[in-house]
Structures are given as structure tokens and as C-alpha cells.
TrEMBL record:
<feature type="domain" description="Succinylglutamate desuccinylase/Aspartoacylase catalytic">
    <location>
        <begin position="6"/>
        <end position="169"/>
    </location>
</feature>
<dbReference type="InterPro" id="IPR050178">
    <property type="entry name" value="AspA/AstE_fam"/>
</dbReference>
<dbReference type="GO" id="GO:0016811">
    <property type="term" value="F:hydrolase activity, acting on carbon-nitrogen (but not peptide) bonds, in linear amides"/>
</dbReference>
<keyword id="KW-0479">Metal-binding</keyword>
<dbReference type="GO" id="GO:0046872">
    <property type="term" value="F:metal ion binding"/>
</dbReference>
<protein>
    <submittedName>
        <fullName>ACY2 Aspartoacylase</fullName>
    </submittedName>
</protein>
<keyword id="KW-0862">Zinc</keyword>
<dbReference type="GO" id="GO:0005829">
    <property type="term" value="C:cytosol"/>
</dbReference>
<keyword id="KW-0378">Hydrolase</keyword>
<comment type="similarity">
    <text>Belongs to the AspA/AstE family. Aspartoacylase subfamily.</text>
</comment>
<dbReference type="GO" id="GO:0016788">
    <property type="term" value="F:hydrolase activity, acting on ester bonds"/>
</dbReference>
<keyword id="KW-0963">Cytoplasm</keyword>
<dbReference type="Pfam" id="PF24827">
    <property type="entry name" value="AstE_AspA_cat"/>
</dbReference>
<dbReference type="InterPro" id="IPR055438">
    <property type="entry name" value="AstE_AspA_cat"/>
</dbReference>
Amino acid sequence: VDKPPVRRVAIFGGTHGNELSGVFLVKHWQENGAEIQRTGVEVKPFLTNPRAVKKCTRYIDCDLNRVFDPDNLGRTVVEDIPYEVRRAQEINHIFGPKGSDDAYDLIFDLHNTTSNMGGTLILESSRDDFTIQMFHYIKNALAPEHCPVLLIEHPSLKYATTRSVAKHPVGKYES
């Protein structure tokens, strides 16, 4: 199947404000992005939850990584709307809209975890050939270092993660 090339990539950090590895990388690349730029590809580092980052807390009102569902993305913006729902709508506007041809090709969402899983890639669909091939490339490039891939696919679950806005969502967890 002939598919269009990946031309727009976003790197997210700070989806959870207390997970600082992605925050530091995104801030570094926002100041000096030369190392992530490639010819023919737009790469945009983006701080997803700046209020939570400023407070160094997971979130302000609710988990940003759980509100990218149609109900929240379509909510009317009123004064008492949770901060992360409003932020999800902004992110969807910038990098989406989710499920559309205009959505970013790839979102790489950087997280930390306290579990002993090392660097782990998160895959949401076993039918995403591009992401599977990309993971294969990453694993080979990192060899002999161990880099597991966690498939979190569920047949009836529609993911509401921050990265799910992209055509190819990728999560990266580091312990």
C-alpha cells in the first residue's frame, strides 16, 4: 500500500507535570532544536501541560492523558471547564484534529515511570505498520541495549491519550 511519507512529527513532554525527563528534553529542543531537525520533516517539541509542570504535579484538575475522547474534545468551553480538558482541546486544534487527514503524522509522547521497565516503547495498534517498522528500527539501533515494546491494544477501546491525536501515536516510558 502506497502511503504518504511522514512529514510532521511532534515530541511531547510534560503530559504529566511531575515526569521531568520529557520536560527537560522538550525545553532543550525548544531552545536548540538542531539535533532533532531533518530535511523534509517538521519536528515540533511541545510542552503539553505547562501548569502542571510549573507545579511539578501530575495534573491540575484531571489527567491530561485520559481526556482526548470525543466528549471532552467537543465540550463547550465554559469558565469551569477543567484545565486539562481545555488544554486537550488546544492540543487537538494544533496537532489534529484527531482522526483527520490534517492530524500530525506522528506524536512521540515522553513519560517517566517508577516501575523497573527501563526504556519502553508503547504501541496502541498492532495494525499500524509504520509504527511497527519504526519500533523495529529503534530496537536495532539501540542493540545490544534492551528496549521492550508494550502493546496496549484493546479491540473495543478508543484511546484518549495525548498522543492519540496523531495518525501514528507513540509512547516512550523511561524508568
